[in-house]
Automatic annotation (TrEMBL):
Keywords: FAD, Flavoprotein, Iron, Iron-sulfur, Metal-binding, NADP, Oxidoreductase. GO terms for molecular function: ferredoxin-NADP+ reductase activity; iron-sulfur cluster binding; metal ion binding. Its cofactor is FAD. It catalyses: 2 reduced [2Fe-2S]-[ferredoxin] + NADP(+) + H(+) = 2 oxidized [2Fe-2S]-[ferredoxin] + NADPH. This is ferredoxin--NADP(+) reductase. The keyword Nucleotide-binding does not apply. The keyword Oxidoreductase applies. SUPFAM superfamilies: 4Fe-4S ferredoxins, Nucleotide-binding domain. Residues 1-29, 37-66 form the 4Fe-4S ferredoxin-type domain. It comes from Gordonia hirsuta DSM 44140 = NBRC 16056. Its EC number is 1.18.1.2.
Protein backbone atom coordinates (compact mmCIF):
# COMPACT_ATOMS: atom_id res chain seq x y z
CA UNK A 1 0.00 0.00 0.00
CA UNK A 2 1.26 3.51 -0.73
CA UNK A 3 2.63 5.73 1.99
CA UNK A 4 0.35 8.24 3.68
CA UNK A 5 0.92 11.69 5.23
CA UNK A 6 -0.94 12.21 8.49
CA UNK A 7 -1.93 14.87 10.95
CA UNK A 8 1.40 16.03 12.42
CA UNK A 9 2.48 17.23 8.93
CA UNK A 10 3.83 20.76 9.36
CA UNK A 11 4.39 21.40 5.64
CA UNK A 12 8.16 21.82 5.61
CA UNK A 13 8.37 19.92 2.32
CA UNK A 14 11.48 17.89 3.22
CA UNK A 15 9.66 14.82 1.92
CA UNK A 16 9.10 16.50 -1.46
CA UNK A 17 12.84 16.66 -2.05
CA UNK A 18 13.42 13.13 -0.78
CA UNK A 19 10.78 11.51 -2.99
CA UNK A 20 12.32 9.98 -6.13
CA UNK A 21 9.07 9.99 -8.10
CA UNK A 22 7.77 13.47 -7.27
CA UNK A 23 4.50 12.14 -5.93
CA UNK A 24 4.15 14.53 -2.95
CA UNK A 25 2.26 17.76 -3.56
CA UNK A 26 1.77 20.66 -3.46
CA UNK A 27 5.49 21.39 -3.75
CA UNK A 28 6.79 24.78 -2.55
CA UNK A 29 6.82 26.06 -6.14
CA UNK A 30 3.20 25.08 -6.79
CA UNK A 31 0.46 27.67 -6.22
CA UNK A 32 -1.46 25.73 -3.55
CA UNK A 33 1.53 25.33 -1.23
CA UNK A 34 1.11 28.51 0.84
CA UNK A 35 -2.48 27.68 1.75
CA UNK A 36 -2.32 23.86 1.92
CA UNK A 37 -3.41 22.33 5.24
CA UNK A 38 -0.78 19.60 4.80
CA UNK A 39 1.00 17.81 1.95
CA UNK A 40 -0.40 14.72 0.23
CA UNK A 41 1.05 11.56 -1.33
CA UNK A 42 -0.37 10.43 -4.66
CA UNK A 43 -1.31 6.78 -4.04
CA UNK A 44 -1.13 5.91 -7.70
CA UNK A 45 2.51 6.95 -8.16
CA UNK A 46 4.05 6.24 -4.72
CA UNK A 47 6.48 3.33 -5.10
CA UNK A 48 6.74 2.65 -1.35
CA UNK A 49 10.46 3.35 -1.21
CA UNK A 50 10.24 4.90 2.28
CA UNK A 51 12.66 7.76 1.52
CA UNK A 52 10.13 10.35 2.70
CA UNK A 53 9.83 8.73 6.14
CA UNK A 54 13.48 9.38 6.89
CA UNK A 55 13.21 12.95 5.63
CA UNK A 56 10.18 13.93 7.72
CA UNK A 57 11.20 15.78 10.92
CA UNK A 58 7.89 15.11 12.71
CA UNK A 59 7.14 11.47 11.88
CA UNK A 60 4.07 12.40 9.85
CA UNK A 61 4.44 9.68 7.19
CA UNK A 62 3.34 6.07 7.61
CA UNK A 63 3.53 3.13 5.25
CA UNK A 64 -0.08 2.37 4.29
CA UNK A 65 -0.03 -1.05 5.93
CA UNK A 66 1.14 0.34 9.28
CA UNK A 67 -1.15 3.30 9.61
CA UNK A 68 -2.70 3.43 13.11
CA UNK A 69 -6.52 3.29 13.44
CA UNK A 70 -6.62 6.88 14.70
CA UNK A 71 -5.06 8.06 11.42
CA UNK A 72 -6.82 5.71 9.01
CA UNK A 73 -8.90 8.55 7.52
CA UNK A 74 -5.73 10.12 6.15
CA UNK A 75 -5.45 7.36 3.54
CA UNK A 76 -8.58 8.81 1.96
CA UNK A 77 -7.54 12.42 2.60
CA UNK A 78 -4.28 11.88 0.66
CA UNK A 79 -6.05 10.11 -2.17
CA UNK A 80 -8.82 12.71 -2.39
CA UNK A 81 -6.27 15.41 -3.14
CA UNK A 82 -5.53 13.59 -6.41
CA UNK A 83 -9.04 12.31 -7.03
CA UNK A 84 -7.42 8.87 -6.89
CA UNK A 85 -8.25 5.46 -5.50
CA UNK A 86 -6.66 5.16 -2.03
CA UNK A 87 -5.67 1.55 -2.60
CA UNK A 88 -5.13 1.05 -6.30
CA UNK A 89 -4.86 -2.49 -7.59
CA UNK A 90 -3.55 -1.31 -10.93
CA UNK A 91 0.10 -1.14 -11.98
CA UNK A 92 2.32 1.30 -10.14
CA UNK A 93 4.73 3.71 -11.69
CA UNK A 94 7.46 1.46 -13.21
CA UNK A 95 10.60 1.69 -11.11
CA UNK A 96 12.95 1.42 -14.09
CA UNK A 97 11.65 4.70 -15.46
CA UNK A 98 11.98 6.67 -12.22
CA UNK A 99 14.85 8.70 -13.61
CA UNK A 100 12.56 10.17 -16.25
CA UNK A 101 10.21 11.66 -13.67
CA UNK A 102 10.91 15.38 -13.04
CA UNK A 103 12.04 15.99 -9.49
CA UNK A 104 10.91 18.91 -7.34
CA UNK A 105 13.49 21.71 -7.61
CA UNK A 106 16.08 21.99 -4.84
CA UNK A 107 18.14 25.10 -4.22
CA UNK A 108 21.65 23.66 -4.31
CA UNK A 109 24.18 25.30 -1.99
CA UNK A 110 26.59 27.35 -4.03
CA UNK A 111 29.78 29.28 -3.42
CA UNK A 112 29.23 32.98 -2.74
CA UNK A 113 31.12 35.37 -4.98
CA UNK A 114 32.76 38.55 -3.75
CA UNK A 115 31.23 38.56 -0.26
CA UNK A 116 33.11 39.48 2.92
CA UNK A 117 34.71 36.44 4.52
CA UNK A 118 33.42 35.86 7.12
CA UNK A 119 29.97 37.23 6.34
CA UNK A 120 28.51 38.00 9.79
CA UNK A 121 24.72 37.72 10.12
CA UNK A 122 22.63 38.52 13.22
CA UNK A 123 19.28 36.75 13.54
CA UNK A 124 16.77 38.09 16.08
CA UNK A 125 14.71 35.26 17.56
CA UNK A 126 15.28 31.50 17.56
CA UNK A 127 11.85 30.21 16.51
CA UNK A 128 11.24 28.02 13.46
CA UNK A 129 11.80 30.84 10.96
CA UNK A 130 15.12 31.74 12.59
CA UNK A 131 16.31 28.12 12.68
CA UNK A 132 15.38 27.45 9.04
CA UNK A 133 17.09 30.71 8.01
CA UNK A 134 20.27 29.78 9.89
CA UNK A 135 20.23 26.34 8.27
CA UNK A 136 19.93 27.93 4.83
CA UNK A 137 22.65 30.53 5.50
CA UNK A 138 25.10 28.05 6.96
CA UNK A 139 25.17 26.05 3.73
CA UNK A 140 27.65 28.70 2.62
CA UNK A 141 31.25 28.43 3.78
CA UNK A 142 31.74 32.16 4.44
CA UNK A 143 28.67 32.66 6.65
CA UNK A 144 28.71 33.01 10.47
CA UNK A 145 25.42 33.42 12.34
CA UNK A 146 24.75 34.85 15.80
CA UNK A 147 21.20 34.38 17.06
CA UNK A 148 19.67 36.56 19.79
CA UNK A 149 16.81 35.05 21.83
CA UNK A 150 15.07 36.88 24.67
CA UNK A 151 13.95 33.69 26.45
CA UNK A 152 16.11 31.21 28.35
CA UNK A 153 15.10 28.43 25.93
CA UNK A 154 15.27 28.51 22.13
CA UNK A 155 12.85 27.53 19.31
CA UNK A 156 9.94 29.96 19.91
CA UNK A 157 6.45 28.58 19.43
CA UNK A 158 7.78 25.15 18.43
CA UNK A 159 8.64 24.89 22.13
CA UNK A 160 6.14 27.28 23.78
CA UNK A 161 3.15 27.15 21.38
CA UNK A 162 2.66 23.62 20.04
CA UNK A 163 0.36 21.70 22.37
CA UNK A 164 2.07 19.25 24.74
CA UNK A 165 -0.22 16.40 23.63
CA UNK A 166 1.15 16.73 20.07
CA UNK A 167 4.59 15.23 20.72
CA UNK A 168 5.19 14.34 17.05
CA UNK A 169 4.91 18.01 16.07
CA UNK A 170 7.02 19.03 19.04
CA UNK A 171 9.73 16.66 17.82
CA UNK A 172 10.65 19.24 15.16
CA UNK A 173 12.84 20.69 17.93
CA UNK A 174 15.09 17.64 17.43
CA UNK A 175 15.80 18.97 13.94
CA UNK A 176 16.41 22.46 15.35
CA UNK A 177 18.82 20.98 17.91
CA UNK A 178 20.78 19.43 15.06
CA UNK A 179 20.92 22.80 13.25
CA UNK A 180 21.99 24.44 16.54
CA UNK A 181 25.07 22.17 16.68
CA UNK A 182 26.61 23.94 13.67
CA UNK A 183 29.96 25.33 14.84
CA UNK A 184 29.33 28.57 12.94
CA UNK A 185 26.03 29.22 14.75
CA UNK A 186 26.03 30.89 18.14
CA UNK A 187 22.74 31.25 20.05
CA UNK A 188 22.72 33.92 22.77
CA UNK A 189 19.82 33.18 25.13
CA UNK A 190 18.32 35.68 27.62
CA UNK A 191 19.28 38.44 25.20
CA UNK A 192 16.51 40.70 24.01
CA UNK A 193 17.19 43.00 21.11
CA UNK A 194 15.86 46.41 22.17
CA UNK A 195 16.65 45.75 25.85
CA UNK A 196 20.06 44.05 26.20
CA UNK A 197 21.44 45.11 22.84
CA UNK A 198 20.05 47.63 20.36
CA UNK A 199 19.18 47.10 16.73
CA UNK A 200 21.63 49.89 15.90
CA UNK A 201 24.44 47.99 17.65
CA UNK A 202 23.64 44.90 15.58
CA UNK A 203 23.70 46.96 12.39
CA UNK A 204 27.14 48.25 13.37
CA UNK A 205 28.59 44.84 14.15
CA UNK A 206 26.99 42.57 11.53
CA UNK A 207 26.76 42.71 7.76
CA UNK A 208 23.03 42.02 7.95
CA UNK A 209 20.27 41.67 10.54
CA UNK A 210 17.45 39.18 9.92
CA UNK A 211 14.44 39.85 12.17
CA UNK A 212 12.58 36.65 13.11
CA UNK A 213 10.79 37.82 16.26
CA UNK A 214 7.39 36.27 15.50
CA UNK A 215 3.93 37.83 15.87
CA UNK A 216 3.35 37.61 19.61
CA UNK A 217 0.23 39.74 20.09
CA UNK A 218 -3.37 38.53 20.13
CA UNK A 219 -5.82 40.17 17.84
CA UNK A 220 -8.06 41.90 20.37
CA UNK A 221 -11.76 41.07 20.67
CA UNK A 222 -13.42 44.44 20.94
CA UNK A 223 -16.66 43.81 22.81
CA UNK A 224 -17.96 44.97 26.19
CA UNK A 225 -16.74 42.93 29.13
CA UNK A 226 -13.48 41.53 27.72
CA UNK A 227 -11.59 43.08 30.63
CA UNK A 228 -13.57 41.17 33.27
CA UNK A 229 -11.76 38.59 35.42
CA UNK A 230 -12.34 35.17 33.90
CA UNK A 231 -11.72 36.39 30.34
CA UNK A 232 -8.27 35.74 28.90
CA UNK A 233 -6.61 35.24 25.57
CA UNK A 234 -5.66 31.85 24.20
CA UNK A 235 -2.04 33.06 23.95
CA UNK A 236 -1.83 33.45 27.72
CA UNK A 237 -3.41 30.03 28.37
CA UNK A 238 -1.12 28.31 25.85
CA UNK A 239 1.89 30.06 27.39
CA UNK A 240 0.72 29.04 30.86
CA UNK A 241 0.32 25.31 30.13
CA UNK A 242 3.57 25.27 28.16
CA UNK A 243 5.61 26.91 30.95
CA UNK A 244 6.38 30.14 29.02
CA UNK A 245 8.10 32.45 31.54
CA UNK A 246 5.92 35.43 30.52
CA UNK A 247 2.74 33.58 31.49
CA UNK A 248 3.40 31.77 34.78
CA UNK A 249 0.81 34.00 36.47
CA UNK A 250 -1.82 33.63 33.73
CA UNK A 251 -3.60 30.89 35.68
CA UNK A 252 -7.08 30.39 34.14
CA UNK A 253 -10.18 30.34 36.34
CA UNK A 254 -11.45 26.76 36.10
CA UNK A 255 -13.88 26.88 39.07
CA UNK A 256 -16.82 26.86 36.67
CA UNK A 257 -18.81 24.13 34.94
CA UNK A 258 -18.72 25.71 31.51
CA UNK A 259 -16.10 27.69 29.60
CA UNK A 260 -16.39 29.28 26.17
CA UNK A 261 -13.65 29.64 23.58
CA UNK A 262 -14.37 32.42 21.08
CA UNK A 263 -12.83 31.53 17.71
CA UNK A 264 -12.42 28.07 16.21
CA UNK A 265 -8.98 27.90 14.62
CA UNK A 266 -6.43 25.25 15.52
CA UNK A 267 -5.22 27.21 18.56
CA UNK A 268 -8.80 27.39 19.89
CA UNK A 269 -9.02 23.60 19.52
CA UNK A 270 -5.67 23.17 21.28
CA UNK A 271 -6.86 25.16 24.29
CA UNK A 272 -10.24 23.39 24.55
CA UNK A 273 -8.63 19.97 24.08
CA UNK A 274 -5.99 20.52 26.77
CA UNK A 275 -8.51 21.96 29.26
CA UNK A 276 -10.83 18.96 28.82
CA UNK A 277 -8.12 16.27 28.61
CA UNK A 278 -7.68 13.52 31.18
CA UNK A 279 -4.96 14.88 33.52
CA UNK A 280 -3.43 11.42 33.83
CA UNK A 281 -2.90 11.37 30.07
CA UNK A 282 -1.46 14.90 30.16
CA UNK A 283 0.93 13.72 32.87
CA UNK A 284 2.67 11.63 30.19
CA UNK A 285 3.44 14.81 28.20
CA UNK A 286 5.78 17.68 29.04
CA UNK A 287 2.97 19.99 30.11
CA UNK A 288 4.05 22.44 32.80
CA UNK A 289 3.83 20.75 36.23
CA UNK A 290 2.04 23.65 37.98
CA UNK A 291 -0.48 23.85 35.12
CA UNK A 292 -1.19 20.12 35.39
CA UNK A 293 -1.76 20.42 39.15
CA UNK A 294 -4.24 23.26 38.52
CA UNK A 295 -6.02 21.23 35.80
CA UNK A 296 -6.50 18.36 38.23
CA UNK A 297 -8.66 20.67 40.34
CA UNK A 298 -10.77 21.90 37.39
CA UNK A 299 -14.59 21.94 37.69
CA UNK A 300 -15.11 22.29 33.94
CA UNK A 301 -17.63 19.90 32.40
CA UNK A 302 -18.12 21.50 29.00
CA UNK A 303 -16.05 23.85 26.83
CA UNK A 304 -17.95 25.35 23.94
CA UNK A 305 -15.76 26.37 20.99
CA UNK A 306 -17.72 28.98 19.08
CA UNK A 307 -17.27 30.04 15.46
CA UNK A 308 -18.88 33.15 13.98
CA UNK A 309 -19.64 31.52 10.64
CA UNK A 310 -21.30 28.26 9.64
CA UNK A 311 -19.75 24.82 10.15
CA UNK A 312 -18.50 24.67 6.56
CA UNK A 313 -16.31 27.71 7.34
CA UNK A 314 -14.73 26.34 10.53
CA UNK A 315 -11.28 27.92 10.82
CA UNK A 316 -9.72 24.66 12.07
CA UNK A 317 -7.97 22.52 9.47
CA UNK A 318 -9.32 19.14 8.39
CA UNK A 319 -6.27 17.27 9.79
CA UNK A 320 -6.86 18.85 13.22
CA UNK A 321 -10.54 17.95 13.11
CA UNK A 322 -9.66 14.35 12.24
CA UNK A 323 -7.20 14.26 15.14
CA UNK A 324 -9.95 15.51 17.42
CA UNK A 325 -12.58 13.10 16.11
CA UNK A 326 -10.43 9.96 16.17
CA UNK A 327 -8.10 10.70 19.08
CA UNK A 328 -8.68 10.50 22.83
CA UNK A 329 -10.50 13.87 23.06
CA UNK A 330 -14.16 13.95 24.10
CA UNK A 331 -15.84 15.99 21.40
CA UNK A 332 -19.43 16.65 20.43
CA UNK A 333 -21.47 18.71 17.99
CA UNK A 334 -25.17 19.43 18.41
CA UNK A 335 -26.92 18.09 15.26
CA UNK A 336 -29.11 21.24 15.30
CA UNK A 337 -25.98 23.30 14.52
CA UNK A 338 -25.50 21.43 11.24
CA UNK A 339 -29.00 21.47 9.79
CA UNK A 340 -28.27 24.04 7.07
CA UNK A 341 -24.58 23.22 6.57
CA UNK A 342 -23.67 22.23 3.01
CA UNK A 343 -21.78 18.96 2.44
CA UNK A 344 -18.01 19.48 2.68
CA UNK A 345 -15.19 17.29 4.01
CA UNK A 346 -15.40 19.12 7.34
CA UNK A 347 -19.18 19.04 7.70
CA UNK A 348 -19.31 15.34 6.76
CA UNK A 349 -17.02 14.58 9.68
CA UNK A 350 -18.86 17.01 11.96
CA UNK A 351 -22.14 15.23 11.12
CA UNK A 352 -20.54 11.92 11.98
CA UNK A 353 -19.47 13.34 15.36
CA UNK A 354 -22.96 14.76 15.96
CA UNK A 355 -24.48 11.27 15.54
CA UNK A 356 -22.31 9.82 18.30
CA UNK A 357 -23.67 9.49 21.86
CA UNK A 358 -22.87 12.56 23.93
CA UNK A 359 -19.37 11.92 25.35
CA UNK A 360 -18.39 11.67 29.00
CA UNK A 361 -17.66 14.95 30.79
CA UNK A 362 -15.62 17.00 30.50
CA UNK A 363 -16.03 17.34 26.75
CA UNK A 364 -15.62 20.02 24.15
CA UNK A 365 -18.49 21.06 21.93
CA UNK A 366 -18.13 22.78 18.59
CA UNK A 367 -20.80 25.43 17.96
CA UNK A 368 -21.25 27.55 14.85
CA UNK A 369 -22.93 30.68 13.51
CA UNK A 370 -22.68 32.79 16.68
CA UNK A 371 -21.26 36.32 16.71
CA UNK A 372 -20.12 37.46 20.19
CA UNK A 373 -21.88 40.64 21.34
CA UNK A 374 -20.75 41.10 24.93
CA UNK A 375 -19.27 39.27 27.89
CA UNK A 376 -21.83 39.07 30.68
CA UNK A 377 -21.04 39.68 34.36
CA UNK A 378 -20.21 42.39 36.90
CA UNK A 379 -17.37 41.19 39.12
CA UNK A 380 -16.22 38.47 36.74
CA UNK A 381 -17.41 36.82 33.55
CA UNK A 382 -20.61 34.85 33.96
CA UNK A 383 -21.35 34.17 30.30
CA UNK A 384 -21.36 35.41 26.73
CA UNK A 385 -24.19 36.96 24.75
CA UNK A 386 -24.12 36.11 21.05
CA UNK A 387 -26.21 37.06 18.08
CA UNK A 388 -27.03 34.23 15.72
CA UNK A 389 -24.97 35.41 12.76
CA UNK A 390 -27.06 37.18 10.13
CA UNK A 391 -30.19 37.27 12.33
CA UNK A 392 -31.52 39.35 15.26
CA UNK A 393 -31.76 36.27 17.49
CA UNK A 394 -29.83 36.49 20.76
CA UNK A 395 -28.22 33.45 22.37
CA UNK A 396 -26.69 33.48 25.85
CA UNK A 397 -24.25 30.87 27.15
CA UNK A 398 -23.53 30.82 30.87
CA UNK A 399 -19.79 30.42 31.46
CA UNK A 400 -17.39 31.44 34.23
CA UNK A 401 -14.36 31.40 31.94
CA UNK A 402 -14.00 32.82 28.43
CA UNK A 403 -10.97 32.39 26.19
CA UNK A 404 -10.48 34.51 23.09
CA UNK A 405 -8.69 32.89 20.16
CA UNK A 406 -9.25 35.05 17.11
CA UNK A 407 -5.71 35.18 15.77
CA UNK A 408 -2.37 36.86 16.17
CA UNK A 409 -0.70 40.03 15.03
CA UNK A 410 2.87 41.28 14.77
CA UNK A 411 4.07 44.09 17.04
CA UNK A 412 5.85 47.17 15.69
CA UNK A 413 9.60 46.99 16.32
CA UNK A 414 11.24 50.33 17.20
CA UNK A 415 13.51 51.30 14.32
CA UNK A 416 11.82 49.10 11.69
CA UNK A 417 9.07 50.24 9.30
CA UNK A 418 5.75 48.60 10.15
CA UNK A 419 2.92 47.74 7.80
CA UNK A 420 0.00 48.45 10.09
CA UNK A 421 -2.65 47.05 7.75
CA UNK A 422 -0.97 43.62 7.60
CA UNK A 423 0.51 43.66 11.09
CA UNK A 424 3.94 42.82 9.68
CA UNK A 425 7.31 44.51 9.31
CA UNK A 426 7.14 46.23 5.90
CA UNK A 427 8.99 44.07 3.39
CA UNK A 428 9.15 42.80 -0.14
CA UNK A 429 10.05 39.10 -0.26
CA UNK A 430 11.91 39.39 3.04
CA UNK A 431 13.83 42.61 2.28
CA UNK A 432 12.70 45.24 4.82
CA UNK A 433 11.47 48.32 3.00
CA UNK A 434 10.88 52.00 3.74
CA UNK A 435 8.53 53.68 1.26
CA UNK A 436 8.65 50.48 -0.84
CA UNK A 437 12.47 50.74 -1.16
CA UNK A 438 14.58 47.91 0.28
CA UNK A 439 17.00 48.85 3.06
CA UNK A 440 20.18 46.83 2.37
CA UNK A 441 21.27 44.95 5.48
CA UNK A 442 17.77 44.54 7.01
CA UNK A 443 15.67 41.42 6.41
CA UNK A 444 12.67 39.72 7.99
CA UNK A 445 11.21 36.22 8.05
CA UNK A 446 8.49 34.10 9.64
CA UNK A 447 5.19 35.27 11.09
CA UNK A 448 6.27 38.90 11.30
CA UNK A 449 7.16 38.79 7.57
CA UNK A 450 4.11 37.11 6.05
CA UNK A 451 1.57 37.36 8.88
CA UNK A 452 0.54 34.72 11.44
CA UNK A 453 -0.50 31.90 9.15
CA UNK A 454 0.77 28.55 7.93
CA UNK A 455 2.56 25.81 9.78
CA UNK A 456 5.99 25.38 11.31
CA UNK A 457 7.34 24.12 7.99
CA UNK A 458 5.87 27.04 6.04
CA UNK A 459 8.60 29.13 7.65
CA UNK A 460 11.21 27.08 5.80
CA UNK A 461 10.10 28.36 2.39
CA UNK A 462 9.67 31.83 3.83
CA UNK A 463 13.18 31.88 5.28
CA UNK A 464 14.67 30.50 2.08
CA UNK A 465 13.16 33.50 0.25
CA UNK A 466 14.53 36.04 2.76
CA UNK A 467 17.97 34.40 2.71
CA UNK A 468 18.03 34.43 -1.11
CA UNK A 469 17.52 38.22 -1.03
CA UNK A 470 20.14 38.68 1.68
CA UNK A 471 22.79 36.66 -0.15
CA UNK A 472 22.02 38.36 -3.47
CA UNK A 473 22.57 41.74 -1.75
CA UNK A 474 25.83 40.44 -0.25
CA UNK A 475 27.05 39.35 -3.67
CA UNK A 476 26.02 42.70 -5.14
CA UNK A 477 28.30 44.37 -2.60
CA UNK A 478 25.44 46.07 -0.75
CA UNK A 479 26.27 44.79 2.75
CA UNK A 480 28.85 46.58 4.84
CA UNK A 481 29.36 46.72 8.58
CA UNK A 482 29.03 50.32 9.65
CA UNK A 483 31.13 49.72 12.75
CA UNK A 484 34.10 48.00 11.08
C1 LIG B 1 -0.50 28.30 20.13
C2 LIG B 1 0.12 27.92 18.83
C3 LIG B 1 0.18 26.58 18.47
C4 LIG B 1 0.75 26.21 17.24
N1 LIG B 1 0.78 24.89 16.92
C5 LIG B 1 1.31 24.51 15.72
C6 LIG B 1 1.32 23.13 15.35
O1 LIG B 1 0.86 22.27 16.10
N2 LIG B 1 1.87 22.80 14.13
C7 LIG B 1 2.38 23.75 13.30
O2 LIG B 1 2.87 23.39 12.22
N3 LIG B 1 2.37 25.08 13.62
C8 LIG B 1 1.85 25.47 14.82
N4 LIG B 1 1.82 26.80 15.15
C9 LIG B 1 2.42 27.79 14.21
C10 LIG B 1 3.95 27.90 14.41
O3 LIG B 1 4.24 27.87 15.77
C11 LIG B 1 4.48 29.18 13.73
O4 LIG B 1 4.33 29.02 12.33
C12 LIG B 1 5.94 29.45 14.01
O5 LIG B 1 6.30 29.29 15.36
C13 LIG B 1 6.33 30.88 13.57
O6 LIG B 1 7.72 30.98 13.69
P1 LIG B 1 8.46 32.37 13.94
O7 LIG B 1 9.91 32.02 13.99
O8 LIG B 1 8.01 33.37 12.96
O9 LIG B 1 7.96 32.91 15.37
P2 LIG B 1 8.08 32.34 16.85
O10 LIG B 1 7.97 30.86 16.90
O11 LIG B 1 7.12 33.13 17.64
O12 LIG B 1 9.56 32.72 17.30
C14 LIG B 1 9.94 34.05 17.57
C15 LIG B 1 11.09 34.05 18.59
O13 LIG B 1 11.65 35.35 18.64
C16 LIG B 1 11.92 35.67 20.00
N5 LIG B 1 11.97 37.15 20.07
C17 LIG B 1 10.94 38.01 19.79
N6 LIG B 1 11.37 39.27 19.92
C18 LIG B 1 12.67 39.22 20.29
C19 LIG B 1 13.66 40.22 20.58
N7 LIG B 1 13.38 41.55 20.53
N8 LIG B 1 14.91 39.83 20.93
C20 LIG B 1 15.23 38.49 20.99
N9 LIG B 1 14.31 37.51 20.74
C21 LIG B 1 13.06 37.87 20.38
C22 LIG B 1 10.78 35.04 20.75
O14 LIG B 1 11.07 34.86 22.13
C23 LIG B 1 10.63 33.71 20.00
O15 LIG B 1 11.48 32.73 20.54
C24 LIG B 1 1.25 27.20 16.37
C25 LIG B 1 1.17 28.55 16.73
C26 LIG B 1 0.61 28.91 17.95
C27 LIG B 1 0.53 30.36 18.33
S1 LIG C 1 7.42 6.15 -0.10
FE1 LIG C 1 8.91 6.83 -1.66
S2 LIG C 1 7.68 7.08 -3.50
FE2 LIG C 1 6.23 7.01 -1.81
S3 LIG C 1 5.93 9.15 -1.27
FE3 LIG C 1 7.57 8.38 0.03
S4 LIG C 1 9.45 8.91 -1.07
FE4 LIG C 1 7.76 9.09 -2.54
S1 LIG D 1 6.14 17.49 7.89
FE1 LIG D 1 7.35 17.98 6.08
S2 LIG D 1 8.46 16.09 5.57
FE2 LIG D 1 6.78 15.54 6.98
S3 LIG D 1 5.09 14.96 5.66
FE3 LIG D 1 4.80 17.12 6.11
S4 LIG D 1 5.82 18.23 4.44
FE4 LIG D 1 6.54 16.09 4.36
Amino acid sequence: MPHVITQPCCSDASCVYACPVNCIHPTPDEPGFATAEMLYIDPSTCVDCGACITACPVGAISPGHRIPDTQERFTQVNADYYGADPDPEGPRFPVDSLWRKPLAPVDKPRALDGVPDPLQIAIVGSGPSAMYAADELLKHRQVRVTMFERLSEPFGLARFGVAPDHPATRSVVDLFNVIAQDPYLQILLNTEVGRDVTLEQLRQEYHAVLWAGGAPTDRPLEITGVDLPGVQSATTVVGWYNGHPDFVDAVPLLDTERAVVIGNGNVALDVARILTADPDRLATTNIDAAALAHLRGSSIREIVVVGRRGAEHGAFTLPELIGLADGPAHVWVDPADLVDAPETEKTTLLREISQRPKPAEPYLRLAFGLTPERILGEERATGVRFQRTGTQETVELQAGAVFTAIGYRGRPVPGLPFDDARGTIANVAGRITADQQPIPGLYVTGWVKRGPNGFIGTNKTDSAEAVRGLLADAEAGLLARAGV
